[in-house]
Fold:
Amino acid sequence: MLEKTAKILRYGVFLGLAILLVGLFINNLLHIDLLVYIGLITIVVTPMITLFSISIMLLLRKDYRSFTLSIILLLVLIISIIVAFLE
Structure:
């Protein structure tokens, strides 16, 4: 279980950093910052995707208590992001 989630986290962060670096390069040349934002969003969303995959694995293992806690944590993260955007 940990190997799969570690791969998701690792590749997500690498992908986000790659997009961010390309975005910074393009931003310096063309003053277009869309890729910078996409890279940052990728880096922020990656742990949430990892947590979601852990939740699914816990559900498949029938560990309902841990599944419930992970879903609550995921909901708290999503609500926090929504509230931050609304302010």
